[in-house]
Target: Glycosyltransferase family 4 protein
Amino acid sequence: MKIAQVSPLWEAVPPTFYGGTERVVANLSNALVDQGNEVTLFAAGGSHTRATLVPVRRQALRLDPAPLKSELAAHLLLMSEVRRRADEFDVLHFHIDLLHFPFFEDMADRTLTTIHGRLDLTDLAEAYGRWSEFPLVSLTHQQREPMPSANWIGTVHNGIDDTHFSPLTKPTGAYLAFLGRIAPEKRPDRAIDVAIRAGVPLKIAAKVDAVDRAYFENCIRPLLQHPLIEYVGEVSDAEKPGFLGNARALLFPIDWPEPFGLVMIEAMACGTPVIAWRCGSVPEVLEHGLTGFIVDNEQEATAAVKHVGKLDRARIRAAFERGFSAKVMASAYVKLYHGLPAMSLPAAA
Model:
């Protein structure tokens, strides 16, 4: 099958540091190639893939030092290039939310759109209703709740490369980990509170976007003075397995309808349990008492810290392999590709 994967241009594929969607696209593209498909990846320059790369932009938008740049113009150029070459592919798989809808209305039946973001925003339901002919895929069933009547054709959990992460033979287990972004909805303040309550060191590996800089300076930086708390900044993809694998547990104290939460399965791939708030995708990703603990408040999270050592890291890794590897994800998408309306039409004479 000839498949186009269309990635956002914010980060390289995969990202050097933080990045969720682009990391999923990287894992999916490689796994599809490994399964014998012809895959072309439209992405930012600096990407690395086993697919055929079409670098639409010189470098990822976030890494571009230019003080002034147009994210909209960059993605319009991306749409133009994919449209120009669309006839080369059986399936066009988009990971850019709904930006492509006006450009591909005449071939919506051979597109697949994975929605990676939240759907409870003003105007989204109306827009998805306007372009209802586009087949959509959710990351979790919970993600669909704001738009239950949209054209959903499947749910595919995100997957990651099972060779990049692996359980450590002798993890130190001396600290709790927080990995991701410093943002109000990610609640690093909760993670800090839980670590202090439990008396266990916390290492925070996270980026700070410009939009969250004031929150970091005013709300989080003062909390970093506590001797149990260490802010290490962003960690690279190469550093992530050691950071997660040596942790006693990953804290995932979110306060928003998280569509998936890639860091949870990255921790699981390392055999590291996750302590997460009952919010968004968490109940669909974690199995309480097996891969971690699902909690409702700081008191329950603090108690969970004392019990994570009882969880079997080999069983956590096995649960990851069953449900969240890149191979499992790619196989699920191939089934959806074959079910697209255009794939069932007879070939032209």
Summary: The chain is about 30% helix and 15% strand. The longest helix spans residues 21-34. The domain at 2-161+325-344 is CATH 3.40.50.2000 (Rossmann fold).
